[in-house]
Amino acid sequence: MQLSKTEEELMNHLWKLEKAFMKDLLEEYPEPKPATTTIATLLKRMTDKGFIAYTVFGKSREYYPLVKKKDYFSKHLNGLIKNFFNNSASQFASFFTEETDLSEKELEALRSLVDKKLEKKKK
What we know:
It is a single chain. The relative contact order is 0.10. The chain has six helices and three strands, in the order αβααββααα. It has a three-stranded antiparallel β-sheet with strand order 1-3-2. The chain has two domains: 5-65, Winged helix-like DNA-binding domain superfamily/Winged helix DNA-binding domain (Arc Repressor Mutant, subunit A, Orthogonal Bundle), CATH 1.10.10.10; 69-122. It has helices at 5-17, 22-28, 36-48, 69-84, 89-99, 104-122; strands spanning 20-21, 52-57, 60-65.
């Protein structure tokens, strides 16, 4: 199951804050801020989907993520590679390096990451 774009935006705020009440989440949005009812609806849907939970304090709820940001995006990236690049990380890497405007410094950093991973695999 995945989040809609608006749910992802809200989830990013929650990942950043780690725990938050509705008012805290609303403060994270730029003007014009979404309606409180909109945020409440999104929080309900995200709770129903199992992405977040909450602790009740009187009449207020403090929300917190149940899914780590890294895990969420890793799953989606792997799905993207599977669905659009024939499950080939090499095809994805080729597309990524050809179709993005990476600087020489960024490409060198990518090479360094790959080299380090290769060294670990050889051990």
